[in-house]
Write a structure and sequence with these properties.
Helices cover 41% and strands 27% of the residues. The protein contains 4 helices and 6 strands, in the order H-E-H-E-E-E-H-E-E-H. Strands 1, 2, 3, 4, 5 and 6 form a 6-stranded antiparallel sheet that branches. The longest helix is centred in the middle third of the chain and has 19 residues.
């Protein structure tokens, strides 16, 4: 069943791919930091977005911002990124992993400074397939008081991306 949300998601992925089509050995993925309940956007989380904007500025200055797209949603930010798929494994740009970590940490810091609500976050990877469907994997669920280790997050993210790609081969 194709819902309005799925059509919007597919269109967002198509627009991203039109900016720079995936190179040989690359696939595009969505990496979503989604609040379980409530909202996680600029109006409710101004302290977090101040930190996120600062991190985005640093990434833009480094010249690696063209490797991903940043989308704001009421439920939380989304990164559209290129994933290199080789026989040796999968590779996601370090700047993307760093930004995901920064977003999750910014949420915690924002809540500490008064951002509301403070519901847990889910990190989700998803991808369109066959032109009409999509598949998603939940990477982790994290509360605003939970510590975040970038290496552990990167490992779980790689595992979920591997699962995501396997799920699309069926």
């Amino acid at each position: 069943m194709d819902t309005a949300w799925q059509r919007t998601f597919q269109e967002r992925m198509r627009r991203f791919e039109m900016r720079r089509p995936p190179r040989t050995g690359e696939v595009t993925v969505s990496i979503k930091v989604r609040v379980i309940s409530g909202c996680f956007h600029r109006e409710c989380s101004p302290h977090a977005y101040e930190i996120i904007d600062e991190h985005l500025s640093k990434v833009a200055a480094s010249g690696t911002a063209s490797e991903f797209g940043f989308e704001e949603h009421e439920s939380g930010p989304e990164l559209l990124a290129y994933l290199a798929v080789t026989t040796a494994g999968i590779t996601l740009a370090a700047s993307v992993i760093g930004l995901i970590t920064a977003i999750i940490k910014a949420r915690s810091e924002g809540v500490r400074k008064g951002d509301r609500p403070s519901d847990p976050l889910e990190l989700i990877v998803r991808r369109t397939h066959d032109g009409s469907g999509f598949h998603e994997e939940i990477v982790l669920r994290v509360g605003h008081k939970d510590p975040i280790d970038e290496k552990a997050l990167a490992k779980r993210l790689r595992e979920a991306l591997r699962q995501l790609l396997q799920g699309l081969k069926c």
